[in-house]
UniProtKB/TrEMBL annotation:
InterPro entries: YoqH-like (IPR058968). Pfam families: YoqH. It comes from Sporosarcina soli. This is Uncharacterized protein. The lineage of its organism: Bacteria, Bacillati, Bacillota, Bacilli, Bacillales. It comes from the Bacteria. Keywords: Signal.
Length: 151
C-alpha cells in the first residue's frame, strides 16, 4: 500500500510540473538592431535585423532571423561578387548563413532575406552582411555589422 501511495504521489508531482520548453519560448522577447556600415561601405548604408520566435505548423517553434539592408552598392563594386549574405553567429558556438535577395524599386536596390530554422532558444550575438560570389561561394568584404546585446 505504501509503494502504491508513493508511486501515485510521484506520478502526480511529475505530471503537474511544467516543462521548461513550454515556458522558455515566452521568455525571449522580439528584438531588433541597426546594422552599421563598415569602412568599406558607403556611409549611407544601413540595415535592420529582426529577431523573434515564431510558431510553425505542428507546434514547431523556431527563432526567425531577418535582415533588410538599404543603400548598398552593387556587390560587383567590391570585386568578383554578385550578391550579399548574412552571417549570424554566437562566437565559438554556432553560426547561420542565409542569402539576401535584391528588390529593385525606382532605381534603388533593397536587399532582404530571412531564416526561420534557428532553435527557439538561440539568439545570435553578432550579425554581418558580406559580399558573396553565389557560384563559387567565395565571400568578400563585410559591409554591415553589429554586436547584438542580449534581448
Amino acid at each position: 500500500m505504501k509503494k502504491l501511495l508513493f508511486s501515485l504521489i510521484f506520478v502526480l508531482v511529475i505530471l503537474s510540473s511544467p516543462t521548461h520548453s513550454e515556458n522558455k519560448i515566452e521568455e525571449l522577447p522580439p528584438c531588433s538592431a541597426i546594422l552599421e556600415p563598415t569602412k568599406s561601405a558607403p556611409k549611407n548604408a544601413r540595415g535592420v535585423a529582426l529577431i523573434y520566435n515564431i510558431e510553425r505548423k505542428f507546434n514547431d517553434e523556431r527563432t526567425s532571423l531577418s535582415v533588410h539592408a538599404l543603400h548598398l552598392p552593387e556587390p560587383s563594386s567590391f570585386g568578383d561578387y554578385d550578391g550579399y549574405e548574412v552571417l549570424a553567429y554566437i562566437p565559438k558556438e554556432i553560426s547561420w548563413i542565409f542569402p539576401l535577395s535584391p528588390v529593385s524599386n525606382y532605381g534603388e536596390t533593397t536587399w532582404a532575406g530571412n531564416l526561420d530554422e534557428v532553435s527557439p532558444m538561440m539568439r545570435p550575438t553578432r550579425m554581418k552582411v558580406r559580399t558573396v560570389n553565389t557560384t563559387t561561394k567565395k565571400t568578400g568584404p563585410i559591409v554591415l555589422e553589429k554586436i547584438l546585446k542580449p534581448c
